[in-house]
Queue: 2 jobs
Job 1
Amino acid sequence: MRKLFIAIFIGSIVGLSNPTFAMASDVASLKAQVDKLMEQALVIRESLRQVMLQQPAQAVLASTDQKQVALQVGHWKMEEVPWELRALDQERQAQGGGKMEWEVSLAIAQETAKILEAEGIGVTLLPAILPSIYRADVFVAIHADQNPSLPYASGFKVAASAFDQSGEAKRLAQLLGEEYRKATWLTKESYIPASMPYYYAFNSSKFLYAVHPATPAAIIETGYLPNPRDRAVILTNPHMAAQGIAQGILQFLKEI
Ligand SMILES: [Zn+2]
């Protein structure tokens, strides 16, 4: 029974329809088989990542000169998490005012899309798991914050991708910060945790489901969901938050 379970597990790791392997008589040799298959799977994944870096998935262009903006909704559709991102904690997201972080982020992203589309810009909303190596003119990940040890924490944070190769991500983050502060009454926090610039969806050096390094990419924590003051913007008036994000992106697109 145990052997059968492990056998199914080995097959499912590499997604083989007809896995072939010898029935091992002891756990040690089964572990060795798992290690070998894992190694092979990582080699295949790496080859695919290299190919995708050359031929990234990208938003369908409505016209050749239309700018394409990708807005990632933090934690949206986390149940579709692939094997390589299995370490992502599906439960770990902010909540407050009866809403989960993904719901609040989705409403802000939808409002941001409306503003950008009215300016003739193409917008694609992306879930937590990106298409493999995704290319666009701008990528912004939208989140809401929570700090269990500081229940009255307030403010927003913006960070540029640490994996950026466009040379533009820092400017994008700067403009997002300036415009978001103008559009909302929230203060910009100076402390940026490493989880922001090293956000998994920026990390195309490790993951397949990440943004292309030549895409200017930034992440915004729009405000604290447990704080009623911040919620008045991000939950009650998502249009305000969206205005800040959209204006930051519009300013950025004017420059590049
Ligand atoms: Zn989040």
Note: The chain has a mean pLDDT of 87.
Job 2
Amino acid sequence: MNKTRISSSSGIQYKRTLHQNDIVDLCNECNRNNIVECCDKCGNGVCNNEKCAWLFPSHNNTDFIICNHCFEVIDKKLTPLVDYTKLQLLKKKINEKIEKQITMLPQV
Ligand SMILES: [Zn+2]
Ligand SMILES: [Zn+2]
């Protein structure tokens, strides 16, 4: 079950799946280290292990934290965003331009 809890040590509000008899605030990713930060996307508590959370610098000097789970979801969504059809269109346009330039060359 998911419960919103407030960390007693840092005052960070986070959600995590609680296991039975789970009293200690442990990282939602590795379940081993104490929670240091919480994911800015899902709110899960994460430790400062680089394998558990990803830090992104943000405008107002505060770091944007994404847990590993959310990062994987975002990463999968980002990959198809590279539009290969547009890339090919661009290549086609460049080729057409070159061809035009060639035909425009004065014939000797
Ligand atoms: Zn962790
Ligand atoms: Zn997350």
Note: The chain has a mean pLDDT of 74.
